[in-house]
Amino acid sequence: MNIDRALLIPALKNIATRLRIDSVRATTASASGHPTSCMSMADLTAALFFAEMRFDPKDPKNPQSDRFVLSKGHAAPILYSAWAEAGAFDRAELMKLRQIGSDLEGHPTPRLNFVDVATGSLGQGICAAIGTALNARRIASDYRTYVLLGDGESAEGSVWEAANVAALDKLDNLCGITDVNALGQSRPTMWQHDMGQFERRWKAFGWHAIVIDGHDLTQILDAFAEARSTKGQPTMILARTLKGKGVSFVEGKDGWHGKPFKEGDELNRAIAELEKQFVTDTGPLVDLAAQIPKPASTPLTAVTPKPLAAPAYALGDQVATREAFGTALAKLADSDPRVVALDADVKNSTFSDRFEKVAPERFYQNFIAEQVMVGAAMGLAARGAIPFPSTFACFLTRAADFIRMAAISNVGVKLTGSHAGVSIGEDGPSQMALEDLAMYRAEPNYTVLYPCDAVSAERLLALMAYHPGPAYMRTSRPKTPVIYANDETFTIGGLKVLRESAADVATVIGAGITVFEALKAYEQLKAAETAIRVIDLYSLQPIDKAGLVAAGRATGGRLITVEDHYAAGGIGDAVAEAVADAGFTVHRLAVREIPRSGKPEELVERFGISANHIVDAVKKTK
Amino acid sequence: MNIDRALLIPALKNIATRLRIDSVRATTASASGHPTSCMSMADLTAALFFAEMRFDPKDPKNPQSDRFVLSKGHAAPILYSAWAEAGAFDRAELMKLRQIGSDLEGHPTPRLNFVDVATGSLGQGICAAIGTALNARRIASDYRTYVLLGDGESAEGSVWEAANVAALDKLDNLCGITDVNALGQSRPTMWQHDMGQFERRWKAFGWHAIVIDGHDLTQILDAFAEARSTKGQPTMILARTLKGKGVSFVEGKDGWHGKPFKEGDELNRAIAELEKQFVTDTGPLVDLAAQIPKPASTPLTAVTPKPLAAPAYALGDQVATREAFGTALAKLADSDPRVVALDADVKNSTFSDRFEKVAPERFYQNFIAEQVMVGAAMGLAARGAIPFPSTFACFLTRAADFIRMAAISNVGVKLTGSHAGVSIGEDGPSQMALEDLAMYRAEPNYTVLYPCDAVSAERLLALMAYHPGPAYMRTSRPKTPVIYANDETFTIGGLKVLRESAADVATVIGAGITVFEALKAYEQLKAAETAIRVIDLYSLQPIDKAGLVAAGRATGGRLITVEDHYAAGGIGDAVAEAVADAGFTVHRLAVREIPRSGKPEELVERFGISANHIVDAVKKTK
After folding, report:
1. To pair with B344 at 20 to 30 A between CA atoms, which of A63, A137, A434, B165?
2. What are the φ/ψ torsions at residue A408 (nearest 5 degrees)?
3. What is the per-residue pLDDT across A226-266, written as a single tens digit (0 to 9) for each?
4. Which of these is catalytic: B370, B458, B517, B563?
């Protein structure tokens, strides 16, 4: 921005004052929210939006627009005020903050077109910012990503996962700002105003760190310029600020977190103090909003996905679904440049290393740090990539809160968890995911898929890639036979009836490895002249309610589910709710105690989900 | 230990060689496991167990025994070998590694009396170690805690949460050891053998850091001594090691993670190389196992809990269950010195600050770091404390993987999550827990409680404190009227029938705030001359199956659940499974889309869980 500092700084000061006033008024109007958390970052925000970032207030989603992630999401009012000041929407809207009819929610969500990912769970925004920064590299754009954190937030481990990854990836297009206002929710923060604590940490983690007075606009502008010219490493601007800055009776005072000013005298005194801070003695000020630099308009490479070849398996091939996932992911990598993969140092177990071989430049290694892996995927998805983060299914629980926020963000993260269930065997319970289906099914907008063979794994992966919204696919460690032809079709929300006859006495519903236990049970029962229907429920969410009800009707309402998962929240519960309106109940076979090490087949037997247990259950329900 | 180094070191060398041989043999016998990850830490382990720690191999649970946590749990075989070498059990047992009949599982679990918490999900052991170190302070014992991490593991954010907390708490009774073998599972680690990367980070986080050669016993012993004499801060020993140390064809080589030596030539060559490393030229060696220093036997203060006073509310008082939790927790603090509380800078919202006022020395502030909060609670619980970690229910999902490992550990962490559901209102979805019940219910050994009023909150908290195993209590933000008398009794696994008559047409089952929606619906329907049964399902797991079935029988099998939670994994699913055998299905009212900001009552209405929706559901099922 080519405006003389002597003109620029008074204009920014007045914007900062307006942002403070807006934040105070809006939170008082909604009788809730965090005005003092906004006030500490007002000068930083004014400088960032009106003297640093390149964006188009009328087109926030422009693919080459600089990004801003408000990691301390509770300061949402000032974010909204900044966009209103920039001209994105009418300032009067700000007074509808937190109302049910307004998209200006208590914490930012992508209902607003200028928000990439929902924030409000601390320590996540910086992970998402890594994703938007990686995306710039992917599309060869020079857009920059800015992320503003709170100092209290810096205690979250995910912040340090992000710090490592950003440094390793040399993300010099990423600039962090920490608003060190020294006061947390319930007490002073961990390091308060000891700026050296922050500086030592960020430098040790490989960042360029700049300590400034976060209320001195000259220092702020200089720091942004220094960040822009720093190459080969990300920059963290550590800004010493005062919470509640600008209103004497709250400034730097504990006990004001999340407290709006009371309507009447308290509000009036605050506003009066703030209004006095307008610079009026320098004549007419420049209209900075009108001069925001537009994003680059250099043409980007057009995306033209190549057709995806059909699976190439032979019936009866023994292939683990985790391996089929790797093969399918590599094919997707070759087909579509938007597809990226993220790993947490298990690529040789999940088989995501096959993607890396095809497209190493779109394979992001996070080392053993699942939170930043999923968080970065959120940022990538928000910017048009199709990200596939994967690790052992049990270790994705490490990122459960990110998975939750991805649901609120409704971004297309395509998660895959391998090594599900007791069927992994000897490694023992710490490596067995037995609660993952419950975790993803709980989120109403997640697609949840669970293939049993290589063909369905490959087909479902491709469906998942292009289905909008977040999704999860569960893969298994043991090899299983290919049972579907390469041209078999699958749908999200479908199921496959694998065995059926008019004489079926019960329907057994499995998924993944239990499909094969059900098929074994079918053979055992057939030998005893009992027929059962067998269903492969490869899509758990959405679920084929009609198909399940039809099977229930055809088999006397006798429905048995069997799953390599704990009893709550998995296949049994999914089927039970789907058939409840039809008046059917479900008999559930599931893992009902903490398992232990052993051979896969021993554990499947011991924990009640083997063919033998299915046969017993059929006999009992008959 | 007063043994001359000239005698000590050869004896330790031979122990290290035996530990390597055991690890190699046991993993080959089980045809799975991580021998090379054991071999890098063999010298460290030998020195720690046989020249540093004070413990009784026959009484590992001694309250004053030094603790060892193997944070890199995949190196379990060498842990087992060290205990066998110390005389805890017969060395022949080692060859049963990972068999279904052996407690020597693939990763350590507390089925073994020398394991405090299960490890195998990386980055958790160091958090638990903070708990065991805090416990030493609680019981005024001088026992020390040692925790061994992998270098790959150091990428986990939870490690840095732990680093902060240990430094802030000045835990000089805690000594970490990082086995920097430079090789991860799938590739070289983030920082490989750049020891400065580790040293800078740990020093920046306030630890005393010592870089050593992890195969030089003199340096190892000196480092332990230096750690012991370092006051006011924890120590991290950063040991440069070689993965697979001792066997030339794997030592320092990538591609050997998690690969046992093949039976036959490969194993034989490895063992032959290792056996050559026995020191035989120094004459008879000292028997170090016989000389392990015993733990202190200074008497500890006896624990004599005082009786807990009954709740002191008046019927109709308006009290949020989160506030009642705080009051109850403060009473527990006063009553029982084993009770401790852990916070993540939300004590003024969860009301755990009431505990802090009563027992500040047993109140552990973790700042905004939920993983270390829950991890430390695991360590505390394993050593006899009764820990109550609490924060917003949604932010406990940040520690989902710890909650999972606490289930495997079966330790008595007593979690409480506040601000559940859409009824929190304006703050919006990022602050609303709507999947927490699914998360805890999935774990088969968690107790899950959900009080609706202050009396039940206080009673359930006391029950939870003394019920064995992990537990979760869900509290709400809005004030609700006290409906139970102070002398009302509650049981884990119970429910309360609040309204019933012979004319009831349906049973409505709620918990927490929906109990009051059900009571409102009762009144509305009563005005229309329709009677319903109303149940407060305050115990979700275990669940009162008989009580629910009886209600179903009495009301024509018409069961309606209503919950401030997503549809999957919560109250509806819990009730549906409980009544399935009786042939009843359940009509579920739950939140079925991502919610938004608004007033609590607006959201309860909009997302389908209000009295109006219950009335409609009753009318439809009639």
Report:
1. A434
2. -65, -35
3. 999 999 999 999 999 999 999 999 999 999 999 999 999 99
4. B370
